């Protein structure tokens, strides 16, 4: 980043809302699939077709707005943003312009200027020198979240987006998957020499499909604009695309102003009126947010800041942990956290699936941790049991009984295994008595082999030491 200029960044984040149907029609609101199979006269802009507002979109939009501390406007208006593009069949986009559903929010230290509802466009597919149009996505419900122009670095922009994604996923309004396009970000960036100067001429950056690409594109744009300004040139207001191959931004078109879109109120949609009772009802669906949950995991469950942060990063993981903890008990919170963040996460990452696809039920993992804590299975045995739990979905009790894996804690049985090993390995006993105590590990290994891995390792160690002392 150039130390010679003050950087100002504003973000425009589009989030695909999780609803069963589209914004203004009953077509399924699902991404992907066979092109042009989820369309109707409304979302394809056929003459005479009229939009009907989806009330579930209102619920999700208000929920998202409350999650980022926005003020809900009790009256908002839909407008037509007019422009021609092949993936916009009506030649205008229905959005909210002058009166959005919510505004004046904040997330962390960043102000939220507004949150408004709008419809998505279709999708262009470029292949073999031709461009094809898929309208499955046309009229899908979006919210656009616009920050105040007060972000000061690419890293801060990335951190804001990560925080926003986590909050909206917790609220359950969207999966916010940037790779799939359910969360998309445009970034506006400008440079100026002094804090008292007016904001510089901005560039709008598009085609940012990951947090990494947002940060890299902004880094590049800071370098590009600072070089122009330092050489006495002028930055022009334009829209630029981020090119992942060349790792640079490229000019796309001069930036349109609001007047270019000729906004006017949509004559087919009346004003959206939201009562305070509706807002209060929606607020009851707000879950405990990540920071609050992390702090509770530290104070209530005795977890470290790090472990609590890992477990509360995703709501599904935090929910899973609390369900499992009901089975194994509060005293085993640290052991459960370790199993969840290491063994469970490792298996899920290896398969590339999320916690929602975990075949091991929370109660089953809690039962396994309880078995370990009670000394019924060893750590090594538990890993073998867990591997089968993950493969079959069976409970640990079922697997332990089926394979006879219960840990041996009987003093008489362990004593018998140890006496046999000492009798069969007099050379190891002699080495131990000569002060070479490292051979104890070999003797423990022999006992574990004799017991098919079921003897309690701690008791084996204690018993071997006690028996060897008799030879002195």
Give your account of this protein's structure.
The chain is built from 15 helices and 16 strands. By secondary structure, the protein is of the alpha+beta class. It has 3 domains: 277 residues, no CATH class; 114 residues, no CATH class; 59 residues, Orthogonal Bundle (Arc Repressor Mutant, subunit A), CATH 1.10.10.410. Strands 2-6-7-10-1-11-12-13-14 form a 9-stranded mixed sheet. A hairpin with a 2-residue loop joins strand 8 and strand 9. Helix 9 packs antiparallel against helix 10. The longest helix is centred in the middle third of the chain and has 20 residues. It is elongated.
Name a few traits of the molecule.
single chain; 472 residues; alpha+beta; Arc Repressor Mutant, subunit A; 3 domains; 9-stranded mixed beta sheet; 19% strand
Mean pLDDT: 92
Strand content of the residues, in percent? Answer: 15-25%
**Which consecutive residue ranges, at least 5 long each, have pLDDT under 50?**
none
The number of domains is 3
Distance between the termini: 72 Å
Topology:
Elements: E1 6-16, H1 55-67, E2 71-72, E3 75-76, E4 79-82, E5 92-95, E6 102-107, E7 110-119, E8 123-127, E9 130-134, E10 141-147, H2 154-171, E11 183-192, E12 203-208, H3 211-230, E13 238-243, E14 248-254, E15 264-265, E16 272-273, H4 276-283, H5 290-301, H6 305-311, H7 315-328, H8 333-351, H9 362-373, H10 379-392, H11 396-403, H12 411-424, H13 426-433, H14 440-450, H15 457-469
Parallel strand pairs: 12-13
Antiparallel strand pairs: 1-10, 1-11, 2-6, 3-16, 4-5, 4-15, 6-7, 7-10, 8-9, 11-12, 13-14
Helix pairs in contact: 2-3, 5-6, 6-8, 7-8, 7-9, 9-10, 12-14, 12-15, 14-15
């Amino acid at each position: 980043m150039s130390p010679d200029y003050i950087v100002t960044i504003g973000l425009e984040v589009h989030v695909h809302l999780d609803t069963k149907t589209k914004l203004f029609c009953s077509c399924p609101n699902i991404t992907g699939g066979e092109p042009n199979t989820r369309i109707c006269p409304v979302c394809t802009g056929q003459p005479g077709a009229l939009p009907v507002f989806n009330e579930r979109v209102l619920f999700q939009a208000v929920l998202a707005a409350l999650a980022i501390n926005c003020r809900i406007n009790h009256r908002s208006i839909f407008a037509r943003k007019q422009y021609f593009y092949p993936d916009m069949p009506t030649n205008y986009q229905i959005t909210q312009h002058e009166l959005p559903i919510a505004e004046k929010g904040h997330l962390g230290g960043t102000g939220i200027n507004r949150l408004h509802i709008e419809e998505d466009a279709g999708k262009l597919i470029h292949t073999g020198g031709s461009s094809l149009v898929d309208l499955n996505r046309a009229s899908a419900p979006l919210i656009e979240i616009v920050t105040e122009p007060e972000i000061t670095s690419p890293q801060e922009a990335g951190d804001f987006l990560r925080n926003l994604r986590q909050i909206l996923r917790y609220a359950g309004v969207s999966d916010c998957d940037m790779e799939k396009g359910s969360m998309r970000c445009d970034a506006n960036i400008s440079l100026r020499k002094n804090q008292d100067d007016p904001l510089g001429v901005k560039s709008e950056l598009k085609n940012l499909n990951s947090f990494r690409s947002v940060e890299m594109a902004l880094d590049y744009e800071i370098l590009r604009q600072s070089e122009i300004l330092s050489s006495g040139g002028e930055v022009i207001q334009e829209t630029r695309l981020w090119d992942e191959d060349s790792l640079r931004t490229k000019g796309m078109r001069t930036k349109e102003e609001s007047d270019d879109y000729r906004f006017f109120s949509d004559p087919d949609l009346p004003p959206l009126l939201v009562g305070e009772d509706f807002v209060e009802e929606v607020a009851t669906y707000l879950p405990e947010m990540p920071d609050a949950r992390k702090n509770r995991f530290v104070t209530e469950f005795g977890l470290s800041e790090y472990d609590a942060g890992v477990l509360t990063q995703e709501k599904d993981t935090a929910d899973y942990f609390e369900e499992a903890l009901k089975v194994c008990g509060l005293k085993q919170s640290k052991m459960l956290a370790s199993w969840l963040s290491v063994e469970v996460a490792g298996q899920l990452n290896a398969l590339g699936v999320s916690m929602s696809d975990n075949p091991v039920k929370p109660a089953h993992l809690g039962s396994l941790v309880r078995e370990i804590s009670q000394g019924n299975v060893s750590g090594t045995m538990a890993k073998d049991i867990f591997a089968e739990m993950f493969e079959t979905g069976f409970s640990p009790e079922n697997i332990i009984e089926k394979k006879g894996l219960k840990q041996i804690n009987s003093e008489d049985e362990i004593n018998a295994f140890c006496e046999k090993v000492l009798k069969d390995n007099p050379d190891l006993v002699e080495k131990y008595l000569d002060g070479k105590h490292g051979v104890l590990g070999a003797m423990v290994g022999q006992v574990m082999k004799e017991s098919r891995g079921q003897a309690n390792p701690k008791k084996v160690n204690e018993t071997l030491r006690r028996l060897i002392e008799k030879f002195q």
